[in-house]
Write a structure and sequence with these properties.
Shape: globular
Helix content: 25-40%
CATH architecture of the largest domain: Alpha-Beta Barrel
Oligomer: single chain
Largest sheet: 9 strands, parallel
């Protein structure tokens, strides 16, 4: 498939712009402008449909999907530790506070730009091939390596949000891996923001800077206060961890006497552009506070199973109006695939609802009304992620960026098996989310530009 800027794409598109719904745009025409945004969507029943098709065909701009192929929005991953990619699949048998002893030495290696380049180029290429068109990245404390991650995303065409990690608390951060001082951490946060915004290859705003306190335990009060001030001044996104595990949750209660969410709010770090990773142990008051501030939650169901000691109450949060998207949490989550995140989101919600302890009677085993279905997971991985980031992505709607994945259900070495006489359109989407593999993702576009794919 080709660059689609200035083209009209004809075929069947799936998207879930609203939670609980799936829209199937069969035989639709999606017009993409030269900037890579969706200019118009013409459905098959629209009286203008034939005229639009003829006009595009006459102009030589009509591109028709191959039989058995479908287009879905690109995935939005709301929580990735970019430097941890070499650790993917390792050290998953220990608690979070012990796991960090493996992680900090690895992240410290990013002082070596040669090592950083190898890891970051591999990561961004692999994520694009998995269909992750937008990624929210924690980097490291290193300015040069973090700038290299920005450069890599721009070079490979991935929409990204990149933050230099801030961590200056000597009681919780090792001597070999923390900011030299609070002042240095704040100065380098500002320097990265300036670098991203002034980057000559970033005129279209493909990459955004993010204020990134690693989490409350890693930061002094002065650092948290300074980062809150920077967030107010620059209007940047903010990312951090929130009530991820019993250890983290308990640490903040002990240090401040309030929950993680209230603590972050006091420091000005809970904003409309804040993404809180995990949030498994948030209270009802925390949810109300997050909703009032308009902040989002990155639900990371796979890594939560390893490190969080609890299942995030996803359905309850959605019912109250919390903005929630999905994250892989590389490498706390041992998969770079947002398809795996979708699958685990459904599984963990079912386990929360039904319970897991067979010694308890069924009526006491779980938390009623907690399940989601695959349509919900698809929405969270696409449109909801875009909404949490306040970016026009994840939907096939005029004005949105055309960030998309071509799924070839008959791709060689693919893993989708369709039966025309049995599978309705919703079944096709379910099979894509549940059974597709990297081989089925044959073309990946960001802003209409082809950036990856198996074909």
């Amino acid at each position: 498939m080709i660059d689609l800027r200035g083209k009209t794409l004809a075929g069947t598109f799936f998207h879930a712009p609203v939670l609980g719904t799936l829209e199937v745009l069969e035989d639709a025409l999606v017009e993409i402008d030269q900037a890579g945004r969706i200019a118009a969507v013409t459905r098959s029943g629209d009286p203008r449909h034939e005229g639009v098709r003829i006009a595009a065909s006459t102009a030589g701009t009509l591109v028709t999907l191959p039989e058995g192929s479908y287009v879905i929005p690109g995935f939005v991953d709301l929580h990735i530790h970019a430097p941890q990619y070499p650790q993917l699949g390792k050290a998953l048998d220990v608690p979070l506070e012990i796991w960090l002893r493996h992680t900090f030495p690895l992240e410290a290696r990013y002082a070596d730009v040669v090592f950083a380049r190898k890891a970051y180029e591999m990561l961004v290429a692999d994520l694009l091939a998995h269909g992750t068109t937008t990624a929210l990245y924690f980097a490291t404390i290193h300015q040069e390596a973090t700038r290299l991650l920005v450069d890599t995303c721009l070079d490979k065409g991935q929409r990204a949000l990149v933050g230099k990690v801030a961590m200056d608390n000597p009681q919780e951060c090792p001597d070999f891996y923390r900011d030299a001082s609070t002042e240095v951490g704040l100065q380098e946060t500002r320097a990265l923001i300036d670098y991203v915004r002034a980057h000559p290859s970033n005129e279209g705003g493909l990459v955004h800077p993010v204020v990134t306190p690693r989490f409350v335990p890693s930061c002094t009060d002065a650092m948290l206060e300074g980062l809150g001030a920077i967030a107010r001044e620059c209007g940047c996104h903010v990312q951090t961890h929130c009530s991820e595990s019993d250890w983290e949750h308990g640490y903040i209660l002990s240090r401040y006497g309030v929950t993680d969410a209230e603590c972050l709010d006091r420091f000005g770090l809970l904003t409309r552009r804040s993404i809180l990773a995990h949030a498994n142990l948030i209270t009802a008051d925390d949810m109300a506070r997050i909703i009032a501030r308009g902040s989002g939650v990155a639900h990371c169901p796979l890594s939560n199973a390893y490190f969080s000691n609890a299942v995030f109450p996803l359905r309850a949060a959605l019912a109250k109006g919390v903005r929630v998207g999905l994250g892989t949490d590389i490498s706390g989550g041992p998969s770079a695939s947002m398809l795996d995140a979708c699958r685990m989101a459904v599984v963990s919600s079912r386990m929360l609802e039904s319970g897991v302890d067979p010694a308890l009677p069924p009526e006491a085993r779980g938390r009623p009304s907690s399940r989601i279905d695959i349509r919900d997971a698809f929405h969270l991985a696409t449109a909801a992620g875009g909404d949490a980031l306040d970016l026009p992505i994840g939907r096939f709607t005029p004005g949105c960026h055309f960030d998309a994945i071509l799924v070839d259900t008959a791709a060689p070495n693919g893993t989708i098996r369709l039966f025309d006489e049995l599978d309705a359109p919703e079944d096709v989407l379910a099979k894509i989310i549940y059974t597709a593999s990297r081989a089925n993702l044959t073309d990946i576009w960001v802003a209409g530009r082809r950036v990856a794919g198996a074909s």
